[in-house]
Design goal:
There is one protein chain. This protein has 151 residues and is mainly α. The chain contains five helices and no strands. The mean pLDDT is 94.
């Protein structure tokens, strides 16, 4: 079993860097095609997309299963939807459906091509909004684990 504390440390880094790049992007105002013409801004946007994706991936692939293992739940050979449903039943995850939407958004961000500027701007704008929710879900898990004995 992976060390859940190491996963939380990893997620903490993703969270810090995600919020840093989000703050920089939001200072620019509304995103536009012009925004995507500036190399430094594109670099910040790329960082935001990377951190959003990594945080979402790490939570789904590592934190969620390890949380259930920490609680003594059997997860071996369980489909991911069963893991989500169990987390929802335990009231750690508020909504499995919401998590699936976050996953879809992550996929849109990573599979939108640079020349699809309107779609890219729309997806980034949506991700900026939902990044706060992603962080809230992470914090909920972290607090839950602490309340249940993770030092």
């Amino acid at each position: 079993m992976k060390d859940i504390k190491l996963v939380l440390q990893e997620l903490e880094k993703h969270k810090e860097r995600l919020l840093y790049s989000k703050e920089k992007i939001e200072k620019w105002g509304k995103l536009s095609e012009d925004t995507l013409k500036h190399a430094e801004k594109v670099e910040t946007i790329d960082s935001f997309i990377f951190r959003f994706s990594k945080m979402q991936d790490s939570m789904g692939e590592k934190l969620f299963p390890l949380t259930l293992e920490f609680l003594g739940e059997e997860i071996r050979n369980k489909p991911f939807i069963d893991i989500l449903n169990k987390l929802e039943k335990l009231e750690i995850l508020e909504s499995a459906a919401e998590w699936k939407k976050l996953r879809e958004l992550r996929n849109l961000l990573t599979h939108t091509y640079p020349w699809e500027t309107e779609e890219l701007i729309e997806n980034i704008t949506v991700a900026l909004f939902y990044s706060e929710r992603l962080v809230e879900i992470y914090e909920r898990f972290k607090n839950y684990l602490k309340a249940h004995g993770l030092e």
